Amino acid sequence: MREIKLLQSFDHPNIVGLLEMMVEHNQIFMIFDYLDHDLTGLLTHPDLTLSEGHRKTIFKQLMEGMSYLHRRRVIHRDIKGSNILLNRDGVVKVADFGLARTMKVLKEGESPDYTNRVITIWYRPPELLLGSVDYGREVDIWGVGCLLIELYTKMAIFQGTEEVSQLHKIFDIMGTPSVDSWPDIENLPWFEMLKPRINKKASFEKDFKPLMSEQSFDLAQKMLTLVPEKRLTADEVLEHPYFTTDPQPEPLDFMQTLEGEWHEFETKQRRREERKRLHELKAKGREVSLPPTQPKAPNPANETSAFQTPLTAEGSVKDELKGSLKAEEVENSVMGVADLVDPNASNPQESENDGIEDIEHKDVDEPVEKAV
């Protein structure tokens, strides 16, 4: 119900449109705008090279959609490439509002107590990985910042396999936070259990600045700051010089001649079929070169942990969590076996009807404050 009410209230060119709903056999079917591609699929196209102007056009439309949502006090909570759709006319739309919600109106000193079991793990910000239930629009900004990097590298920047591994990946690149650099970190529920025991310097500038333009790197750096309160808002992102310095944004004219449909699902299917075909040729004694697969996430059992909590056993994490969580929450607080296989898994615990009131009355022009 929450997703339906949200979708019915949206009216923006960069938000996917709900065209119709049907009910059959006690099931609800929703009909949306059709778009030919998603961003993940598009970036895997073997012959596609995006210019700086193309990247700016894609990212600006994405941020226009995010600004619209955030002005309406809506948090998407599942920003990733497969949820960013594009059509042949070069229009970008944000899709999939299954985890979205409106922000609660809080009294002074009150916590929203949102679930932290949202956002596909590669795009989940560090505060959620450390157990925060008091968050806002800034969690979306982290995910969109990850996508800005992907527009240049065509790969996810942080590729963990579960929560602890994901934190490891983030701190390896962005550096180890301290109480001095992030004062509120020690108040996060799982900080004492998961705090790093090895201080690492950030490699973000060394690794990514050579791959990006000066302004795009500066923008990404300001979106991917570890401290949630310091991340830019969606409106501040749109005001960044990245969009006004040369080269200017340019139309996505190449989309008109792009053959096929490029979505994450079909792309993975193509890869599997191609690898199967090449394996069969190899089995027949022919020399072939297998195409690359998605980079494998590190095996936690074989890497040195930078955390106090061992990475070698999922059970050890659960045991430590039992001291800080209700018994019924333990199974949902650490990735289970299915999640280890599928890093896209999430399991929100909020009521389906929680936060859907007054959606129609949110002012689109409401100023966006920094989330705290």
UniProtKB/TrEMBL annotation:
Keywords: ATP-binding, Kinase, Nucleotide-binding, Serine/threonine-protein kinase, Transferase. Residues 301-311 have a biased composition (Polar residues). It catalyses: L-threonyl-[protein] + ATP = O-phospho-L-threonyl-[protein] + ADP + H(+); [DNA-directed RNA polymerase] + ATP = phospho-[DNA-directed RNA polymerase] + ADP + H(+); L-seryl-[protein] + ATP = O-phospho-L-seryl-[protein] + ADP + H(+). InterPro entries: CDK (IPR050108), Kinase-like_dom_sf (IPR011009), Prot_kinase_dom (IPR000719), Ser/Thr_kinase_AS (IPR008271). Its EC number is 2.7.11.22, 2.7.11.23. Belongs to the protein kinase superfamily. CMGC Ser/Thr protein kinase family. CDC2/CDKX subfamily. This is Serine/threonine-protein kinase BUR1. The lineage of its organism: Eukaryota, Fungi, Dikarya, Ascomycota, Saccharomycotina.
